[in-house]
Amino acid sequence: MLGNPTRDRLAERREASRREIVNAAWSIAREDGLAAVTLREVAARVGMRAPSLYTHFESRNAIFDAMFGQAWRDCVEHMNANLPSTDDLSLREFLKWNTRTFFEFCVSDIARFQLMNQRTIQGFEPSPESYAPSVQALERFREELEPYGLSRQEDIDLYTALLGGLIDAQLANDPGGNRWEKLLDRAVDMYVDGLDLPS
Question: How many CB atoms within 10 Å of residue 160?
Answer without folding.
Answer: 13
